[in-house]
Design a protein that fits this description.
Blueprint (H helix, E strand, L loop, with lengths): L2 H11 L10 H12 L8 E8 L2 E8 L4 E8 L13 H11 L1 E6 L11 H15 L7 E6 L1 H15 L7 E5 L11 H4 L9 H12 L11 H4 L8 E6 L5 H13 L4 E6 L14 H17 L12
Parallel strand pairs: 3-4, 3-5, 5-6, 6-7, 7-8
Antiparallel strand pairs: 1-2, 2-4
Length: 307
C-alpha cells in the first residue's frame, strides 16, 4: 500500500477542469486523452471484430487464450468511452487470467439513449451463446457505466430466458439512476473525479426522459437479483458512487447470491485503471483474476471467433 502513490493519483485526477457542463465532444475527447495515459500489458494482442449487432475488440494473450471468455463492457457514463479506452482493464484481466475477452462497442447517448446500450450488450451475449459458447465459460465484466451494464445485461438475459454467465465482475459500477445513495453527498469533494452535477449531466443524456425508477436503470435499489451468478464488486472509498456498490451487494445477499464486496480505502473511481502506477490497482486486478479463474469453467479449445 503506497500513500504516496494514492496521493499522486488523486492529484492527477484533480487537474483543473472548465466550469459548467462540458459538451459531448469535449467529454469524449478528454476521456480518450486521459485513458491513453494508462498502462496496457505488452503480452496481449488485439483485433477488431463484430459481436451481435456491434463492433467489438477481441483481446487475447499473445500466446493464445485458454478456454473461457470475458465479455467486457467499457465505462464512460453511457456517453463516452470505447473498447480502446478500457484496454488497460481488459488487457490486464486477459493477461492475468489467460482468458480471451470481447469488449463491446455499444451505442452511446445522447445519440442512442436507454435502452440502446443494454440492447447491444444483450445482443453480444446472444451471439456468443449462438456460436456455441457454454454460459459456464463466460463471465461479464465492466467498469463504471460498464459495471452497471454487467448487472443490467444479466437482468435482461434472465428476463429473456437465456442461461446466465458464470460470474460478474463490476469495477466501481454505476447502479442507481435515482442518485439516492448517501455517498452522493458524503463523498462530494472527497471524490477527485465526479460531482453530483457531473453524473446528473451525463445521466440525463442516457435517460432521455425515462423514469429512473426501474430495475434496468437503478438495480442497486430496485432489481430482484434472484438466480444471479456469483458477483465481485470492487469500489474505492473516495467515490460518490460508493453506495451504488454497497446497496447492490446487500440486495445480492438478500437474494441468496454469492457476492464479494471488495472496498479499497482512499482510492478513486475505477482505480484499477492505474495498474502499474498504483499498487492497490494491481492487487485488486489480481483478486478479480482469481475470482474469474475460480468460477469460469471451460473445457476443450478456446473460443476465438464468432464471425
Amino acid at each position: 500500500m503506497s500513500r504516496e502513490q494514492r496521493a499522486k493519483v488523486d492529484a492527477m485526477m484533480r487537474q483543473p477542469r472548465p466550469d459548467g457542463p462540458r459538451s459531448v465532444e469535449a467529454l469524449r475527447t478528454g476521456f480518450k486523452a486521459l485513458m491513453a495515459q494508462m498502462l496496457v500489458p505488452r503480452d496481449i494482442r488485439t483485433a477488431q471484430t463484430t459481436l451481435g449487432s456491434r463492433p467489438a475488440l477481441r483481446v487475447e494473450p499473445s500466446d493464445g487464450p485458454r478456454a473461457g471468455t470475458i465479455l467486457y463492457f467499457h465505462g464512460g457514463g453511457w456517453v463516452f468511452g470505447s473498447p480502446e479506452t478500457a484496454l488497460s482493464l481488459t488487457g490486464h484481466l486477459v493477461a492475468k487470467t489467460g482468458f480471451g475477452a470481447y469488449s463491446v462497442d455499444y451505442r452511446l447517448a445522447p445519440e442512442h439513449p436507454f435502452p440502446a446500450a443494454i440492447e447491444d450488450t444483450l445482443s453480444a451475449y446472444r451471439a456468443l451463446l449462438d456460436s456455441g459458447a457454454d454460459p459456464s465459460a463466460i463471465a461479464f465484466a465492466g467498469d463504471s457505466a460498464g459495471g452497471g451494464l454487467a448487472v443490467t445485461t444479466c437482468l435482461a438475459a434472465r428476463d429473456a430466458g437465456l442461461p446466465l454467465p458464470a460470474a460478474l465482475v463490476a469495477f466501481s459500477p454505476g447502479l442507481d439512476a435515482t442518485r439516492t445513495g448517501e455517498s452522493m453527498n458524503t463523498k462530494e469533494g472527497i471524490d477527485p473525479i465526479f460531482t453530483r452535477a457531473a453524473v446528473e449531466h451525463t445521466g440525463a443524456m442516457y435517460l432521455a426522459g425515462a423514469d429512473p425508477h426501474q430495475p434496468l436503470l437503478s438495480p442497486a435499489v430496485l432489481a430482484d437479483l434472484t438466480g444471479f451468478p456469483p458477483i465481485l464488486i470492487q469500489v474505492g472509498t473516495n467515490e460518490i458512487l460508493l453506495d451504488d456498490s454497497t446497496r447492490l451487494a446487500a440486495r445480492a445477499r438478500e437474494a441468496g447470491v454469492d457476492v464479494i464486496l471488495d472496498v479499497t480505502a482512499d482510492v478513486p473511481h475505477v482505480f484499477q485503471s492505474f495498474a502499474g502506477l498504483l499498487d492497490e490497482a494491481d492487487e485488486a486486478l489480481d483478486r478479480a483474476a482469481l475470482f474469474l479463474t475460480q468460477r469460469v469453467h471451460a473445457e476443450g479449445t478456446a473460443h476465438t471467433s464468432v464471425e
